[in-house]
Amino acid sequence: MQFRFAGFAALTVCIALCLPTELQAQTPIKLGMSAPFSGPAAVLGQQFRDGANLVFTAQNAQGGIGGRPIQLLTADDGYEPLRTVENTRNFLLNQQVFALFGYVGTPTSSAVLPLLRKHQLPFLTPFSGADILRQQNDTFIFNFRASYREEAAAQIRYLVDKRQYQRIALLIQADEFGASVEQWFKAELSKRRLEPVGIVRFQRNSTDMQSAVTQLQEVKPDVVLTVGTYLPLAEAIRLGKSRQFNPVYSAVSFSGIQQLQQRLQPPFQIYASMVVPDPNDLSSTLVKAFHDATSTAPAQRSETSLEGFAAASILVSALKKCADNLSQKCLMQELPKQQLYDFPLQYQHASHQASQQVFLYQLTTNGLAKT
């Protein structure tokens, strides 16, 4: 199939390699995923996809859903909203997918909301904690992860209430993602009669952080709360160190914590909020199942691939409940009822959100240390 511009050349059909012969003739259950598979945020899309495909591959090897294989169609949007819209139109009009799954990012997901509201196609487990994906009337959305509001509250409770930091600056990606987290950081600070000593913005998909770091230096913060992806944040921290500017930093889950950590040279002081446990914490049965699934490829283990694994596990569980009479209506009714190993889920109907779990870690040279 030909697409309207070259970016669509990256369209990939991720079908399990070990499909039983009898499944190959059955009509697949098509899921569409638009995400960055190239560019500065590429690893986020790649890891979420790979984690999800562990679950889909295993289910297909067991006969799929009522004899139908799960087929994940992926399209590269480079973390750019216009490309996400084009990918989504293709999924809707040409691929005729059953549901959209695992879209990565707030600005990209926000851009397709008008299309989704028109078509009412299930939009499942987006990799975003933004409020715009938690509107009460958008009943076609199912969120797995905790919200950015919950992440911001957890960070401020620790850094301000417990550690007693007062001079707080914000380093914010200048788009819907940045705005969606910034508002909650400011709200939490306001509850404590604090205001940011500075708010510095930078462009999405750019690693030019010279001006941003200069502006941060001028306000002399104790802590810099960051909202962005791993590459620009790593560059800001590296550049700051080169100028003897070494505040405490924090990052939210979307940043790509493993990728950020791998790009840093010690010493550093960085805290991260995550919406799944440490992917190496084997006290969790969810993490144990994830490790079993990645036993032949341990390099795949990250918090982002774990989230993809968790999201796909919930989806497959709901699909199995609907196997005898599969429909989008049945799926959306069953998703809120599902459980996820030992991971606590308590579905909130108003926000269409299954989990409220936030885990706060300090990044160390040996991995993650729980605060």
Summarize the structure.
With 371 residues, the chain is α/β, with parallel strands linked by helices. Helix content is 40%, strand content 16%. The protein folds into 2 domains: 6-146 and 283-337, Rossmann fold; 148-274, Rossmann fold.
* Overall tally of domains: 2
CATH topology (fold) name of the largest domain:
Rossmann fold
Computed CA radius of gyration, to the nearest angstrom: 20 Å
Q: Whole-number average pLDDT? A: 94
Q: Strand portion, in percent?
A: 15-25%
Instruction: Note the run of SSEs as H and E.
Output: EHEHEHEHEEHEHEHEHEHEHHHEE
Shape by Cα distribution: globular
How far apart lie the N and C ends?
50 Å
Number of helices: 12
Explain what the structure shows:
The structure is a single chain. By secondary structure, the chain is an alpha/beta fold. It has twelve helices and 13 strands. It has helices spanning about 20-25, 40-60, 80-95, 105-120, 150-160, 175-190, 210-220, 230-240, 255-260, 285-295, 305-320, 330-335; strands at about 10-15, 30-35, 70-75, 100, 125, 140, 170-175, 200, 225, 250, 270-275, 360-365, 365-370. Strands 8-7-9-10-11-12-13 form a seven-stranded mixed beta sheet, with helices on both faces. The protein has a six-stranded mixed beta sheet with strand order 1-3-2-4-5-6, sandwiched between helices. The longest helix is centred in the N-terminal third of the chain and has 20 residues, at about 40-60. The chain is globular and about 60 Å long.
